[in-house]
Design a protein that fits this description.
The complex is a heterodimer. By secondary structure, chain A is α/β, with parallel strands linked by helices. Chain A has 14 helices and eight strands. Chain A folds into two domains: 1-30 and 296-330, no CATH class; 36-287, Rossmann fold. The mean pLDDT of chain B is 93. Classes of the chains: A alpha/beta, B mainly alpha.
C-alpha cells in the first residue's frame, strides 16, 4: 500500500488523539480569537435588556446533562442578564433530568466562586419583610441591608427567591403544562421545586399567567423547544427565544425567518456571543465558559478541515476514485 | 467532602466513557449501563418527589381533592400492561391521552408548523427600498424551496425542464442544507468535548480556571 492508501486507511484512534490534543492546548495557550456577535443573538440580548422589574421572563431548562456544555452557558447568561436588570425569572424544566440542570444553573449563578455571582436569599429568610408588604426591589434591598445583612465581596447583587426568581421545575406532560400556564401559573405549580407555596410569591401575584410574562427562553437539546412556539407563541402571542444545541440550529432557523421567535442562540457559539455582549456592556465582569471554549472550537475545526483536505488529496492523488482499495470497498 | 467525591466520580466515569475511543471494554460498558440505570432511577425519584407526592398523594390524603382519583386511577391503569389477563385496561388511559392530545395539538401544531411556515416563505421578490442582498436572498429562498419540493414530488418522472432540472437543483439545495447541518453537528460534538475537558482540567485537576 502506498502513502496515499496509508493516509486513507489511517487508524481512527490517531484522529481522536489529534482532536484531544488540539482541544486541550488552547486552554493553556490563549489565542484570543475574536467572537463577532450575530443579529439573531443580539436581538435576544436587546429584548432582555429593555426589560425591567415590572416585566418577567421564563427560562425553560429543556436539556439533559448530555448537552449541558452547550445549553448551560446560554441559560446562565440570560439568567444573569435578567438578574442584573431586576427582571423576575420563572424557571421550568420539561423532563425530570432537566430539573437537575435548572438546579445546577442556580448553583452556578449563586456560587461565591463564580465571578460576579448573585447572593441568593431564601424564600423563608425574608418572610417578615414580605408580610410587611416590602416587595419592590429597591425597598426590599434597603430593608434587607438595614437588618444587618451585607452583600458579600464580589457579589453583583441580591436575588430574593419569590421576588427575583421562582424555581418551578419539572411538571409532567410539559406541552400541556405550557398550555395551562397561559391561564394560570399557580394552578400548574402550586408549589415550587423547594416546596414553597407559589401563591405567596410576590412575582406570581404580579405575573399570574404567561399572558403577563414578556419572554420565554427555551434552552433546549430536543425538539421540545417547538412546544413553546406552538402552545405559547401561537396561542397568546408570547415572544419566544431559542437557545439550541448546534446540531439543532439549522433545523430551527425557519422559525426565525417566519418571525415566530425573536432570536436564536445556536450551540456554544451562540452562548459565547451572548457572553461577549454581557461583558462588553458591563453586566458581567468578564466572559464565561462558552467564550473560553471558542478558541478550542477554532483549533479543532482547523484540524478537521486539514484532515478533510488531506483525505481528498490522498483520495484523488492515489487514484482511489477509479479503484476499490479502501477498507470495506465502495 | 461530598462535592469532592462527586467530582471524582464524574471524572472517573468521563474517562471510562472516553476509553471507548481506544476500544470497547468492560469499564466503558459499566459506565454506559450506569448512565442508563441512574438516569431512569433519578427520573423516577424526581417524578415521585415533585409530581406524584405533592400533586396526587398529599392532596388525596388531605381529603379535599377526590377529583384527583380519576387521573390517579387512569395512571394506575397504565401498569396493567404488565398483567396479561387485564392488560386491555391500559387502552383506556392510552385512548384518553391520544384523544385529548390530538384535539389539543392538531390546531395549534398546524398553525405553528405549517401555516406560519408557509406565511414565512411568502416573501416579496422585490420591493422598492430593498437592498440587493435582500432581493437575492429572497429569490434564492423561494427558488430553493420550490426546487426541494420538486425533488420530493414522486408522482411524475424527474425529466424535462421543470421536473428534471428542478429536482437536480433541489438535490443541490438539500445537500447545502445537509452541509450546514454537518458543520453545526461538528461544532456541537466539539462543544460537548470542550465541556468535558473543562470539567476534567478545571473542576477535577484545577489546572485551568
Amino acid at each position: 500500500m502506498n502513502i496515499w492508501g496509508k493516509m486513507l486507511n489511517i487508524d481512527r484512534r490517531w484522529i481522536f488523539l489529534g482532536i484531544g490534543v488540539v482541544s486541550i492546548v488552547p486552554f493553556f495557550i490563549n489565542f484570543g480569537m475574536p467572537v463577532r456577535t450575530t443579529r439573531e443573538v443580539e436581538s435576544i440580548y436587546e429584548y432582555v435588556d429593555e426589560l425591567g422589574s415590572d416585566n418577567a421572563i421564563f427560562i425553560s431548562f429543556d436539556f439533559a446533562p448530555g448537552t449541558q456544555a452547550e445549553n448551560m452557558p446560554m441559560s446562565v447568561a440570560v439568567m444573569r442578564h435578567a438578574f442584573y436588570n431586576d427582571v423576575p425569572v420563572f424557571m421550568t424544566a420539561n423532563y425530570p433530568l432537566h430539573h437537575g440542570m435548572m438546579l445546577a444553573a442556580m448553583d452556578y449563578v449563586f456560587n461565591p466562586t463564580t465571578e460576579g455571582f448573585y447572593e441568593d436569599v431564601d424564600f423563608e429568610d425574608w418572610r417578615e419583610l414580605r408580610e410587611a408588604g416590602v416587595t419592590a426591589k429597591d425597598e426590599l434591598v434597603e430593608a434587607w441591608e438595614n437588618q444587618g445583612n451585607q452583600l458579600p465581596d464580589g457579589a453583583t447583587g441580591w436575588v430574593f427567591e419569590g421576588r427575583d426568581y421562582a424555581a418551578l421545575g419539572y411538571a409532567p406532560v410539559f406541552s400541556l403544562v405550557i398550555l395551562g400556564l397561559t391561564v394560570s401559573i399557580e394552578t400548574q405549580y402550586p408549589v415550587d421545586a423547594h416546596g414553597n407555596s407559589t401563591g405567596e410569591m410576590p412575582m406570581l401575584q404580579e405575573h399570574k399567567s404567561l399572558r403577563e410574562v414578556d419572554l420565554a427562553l427555551t434552552s433546549s437539546g430536543s425538539g421540545a423547544c417547538v412546544w413553546w412556539v406552538t402552545f405559547a407563541r401561537e396561542k397568546i402571542g408570547l415572544p419566544i427565544a431559542f437557545g439550541l444545541t448546534a446540531v439543532m440550529a439549522t433545523d430551527y432557523f425557519p422559525y426565525l425567518q417566519s418571525g415566530q421567535v425573536i432570536g436564536q442562540m445556536g450551540g456554544l457559539r451562540g452562548a459565547a456571543e451572548y457572553e461577549v455582549l454581557l461583558a462588553e456592556n458591563g453586566i458581567t465582569p468578564s466572559t464565561d465558559k462558552a467564550f473560553v471554549g471558542m478558541d478550542v472550537q477554532s483549533a479543532a475545526h482547523l484540524l478537521i478541515i486539514l484532515l478533510i483536505v488531506m483525505g481528498n488529496i490522498a483520495f484523488f492523488a492515489g487514484g482511489f476514485h477509479k479503484k476499490t482499495l479502501l477498507k470495506g470497498g465502495r | 467532602m461530598y462535592e469532592t467525591i462527586g467530582i471524582w466520580v464524574g471524572a472517573l466515569f468521563t474517562l471510562a466513557i472516553y476509553s471507548f475511543l481506544y476500544k470497547e471494554n468492560p469499564i466503558y460498558r459499566l459506565a454506559e449501563h450506569l448512565v442508563v440505570g441512574i438516569s431512569a432511577g433519578y427520573g423516577m425519584a424526581i417524578t415521585y418527589q415533585i409530581t406524584v407526592k405533592p400533586r396526587l398523594i398529599d392532596p388525596l390524603l388531605s381529603g379535599d381533592h377526590w377529583i384527583l382519583l380519576i387521573p390517579g386511577i387512569l395512571g394506575i391503569l397504565y401498569i396493567t400492561r404488565f398483567i396479561p389477563r387485564i392488560s386491555w385496561l391500559s387502552r383506556y388511559p392510552i385512548g384518553f391521552y391520544m384523544g385529548t392530545s390530538m384535539g389539543v395539538y392538531f390546531p395549534l401544531t398546524m398553525k405553528a408548523n405549517v401555516l406560519r411556515q408557509l406565511e414565512g416563505a411568502m416573501v416579496p421578490l422585490y420591493q422598492s427600498g430593498m437592498a440587493w442582498y435582500e432581493v437575492t436572498g429572497n429569490i434564492i429562498m423561494i427558488l430553493g424551496t420550490l426546487a426541494a419540493l420538486i425533488y420530493f414530488f414522486f408522482s411524475k418522472p424527474h425529466k424535462g425542464l421543470f421536473f428534471g432540472t428542478g429536482s437536480k437543483i433541489g438535490i443541490w439545495v438539500i445537500m447545502v442544507g445537509f452541509g450546514a447541518t454537518f458543520g453545526f453537528t461538528v461544532m456541537g460534538r466539539i462543544s460537548l468535548l470542550i465541556g468535558r475537558i473543562q470539567y476534567l482540567l478545571g473542576d477535577w485537576l484545577h489546572v485551568i480556571e
